[in-house]
Amino acid sequence: MSTEGLPIRSIQIHSSDLHEVQQDTWNNIFKPAKLIYGGKVYPVKIGIRGGHTRNYEKKSYDIKMEGGRTLHWNAEYDDPSMIRNALSFHFFNQIGVPSPRTNHIWLIINGEPQGVYLEIESVDRYFFAKRGIGYTSLLYAVNDSADFGVIDPETKAKKRSLLDGYEVIRGPKGTRTRLASFVKNLNRLSGKDLAVHTARRLDVDQYLLWLAGAVLTGNYDGFDQNYAIYEHKDTGKYRIIPWDYEGTWGRNCYGKPCGSDLVQVQGYNRLTAKLFSFPSIRKKYSELLQKLLEKSFTIDRIDPIISALYKKLSPAIHADHTRKHSYETFQSEPSFIRNYIRERRAIVRRELRKWS
Predict the structure, then answer these.
(1) Domain count for the chain
(2) Three-state SS at 65
């Protein structure tokens, strides 16, 4: 196999440590290693990342560097296009929702080529510092209990904690209490009191923009998990950052076609439902979606990004024999994604007419 022009990331790790990391995939074991890229050597720790993908033969990895920086290396094994995460985050950045930057790389471990990976920027203090965004707390929504509701989605009973589904990454004392209070009051208040509560604690405009991005890209799993939530330092209001957008643009997280109508125009979670109890917010969201359909979610705007990614990736994917999907399937994906955009635009317009 050849790197075919992609930047190289090389890992050197003791063979017994590598075997332990790759075999004991669910215990979050991290082992010391050396990362070589850009002509420099960095001491790191490497471990397996992901959900159901941990069981796959081709693993995805987290790389913990000194100073607290983390690199996410996704095999994107289920995505025949290899670009769905990258394309989604590009779209979010384009419409004004700060999102992780991505870079396709060629991975080598102990001299053995591992093929093409997607390197994804971590949402951490470095993420905010690069963008000049001040924040006081950061939490990850790690499972579908992070739906802003009070009922457990699995048991249908009252949640043991209103913070079920969240992992605190950074935050001073009171971080958990403030989010729990936000969720509690969101669910118990209505009318004017609810309007005051959400306006005081939530950046509503930013939330609607994030919601619209998730709805247009079709991320069914993106409304009650797979996002980061942070308190903006200057305003004290919660904002959302998207995460894990492999199951988008017409395919689910297993890479199976799921139709362009899988996601309803309102998305799915308790916070959204409460916000849409106000006609003014429904109107604002409807107008936002119409604007995005006119200016951003179009083939003319998105197709050049697809083409640029494919021009860069195609030689390496052709040389990468670790992929689940054939090169011919990879080559057919731009047409698949363009068709999704066409169908999705029509579906959203039709749903908006009924919903508004």
Answers:
(1) 1
(2) strand
* pLDDT digit string, tens, across residues 243-272: 999 999 999 999 999 999 999 999 999 999
- The residues near 84 (Cβ < 8 Å, ≥ 6 apart) are 76, 245, 246, 247, 248, 249, 251
How many residues in the chain? 356
Kindly report the backbone phi and psi dihedral angles of residue 53, in degrees, each rounded to the nearest multiple of 5, phi listed first. -70, -15
For residue 4, the model assigns a pLDDT of 65
Taking the CA of residue 325 as centre, how many other CA atoms within 13 Å lie in the half-sphere pointing to its CB? Answer: 20
Best CA proximity match to 305, nearest among 249, 254, 221, 262: 249
CA distance 246 to 344: 17
What is the three-class DSSP state of 80?
coil
Residue 317 belongs to some domain of the structure: no
Task: Share the mean pLDDT of the chain.
Answer: 96
Give pTM, 2 decimals: 0.96
If one counts every other C-beta atom within 10 angstroms of the C-beta of residue 156, the result is 7
Contact 101, 121 (CB under 8 A): yes
Angle 327-355/299-319 helices, nearest 10 degrees?
Answer: 160
Provide the sign of the torsion angle of the four alpha carbons 32, 37, 42, 47, taken in this order: negative
Pairing type for strands 238-242 and 112-121 reads unpaired
Per-residue pLDDT, averaged over 141-145, amounts to 95
**Domain extent for 283:** 133-295
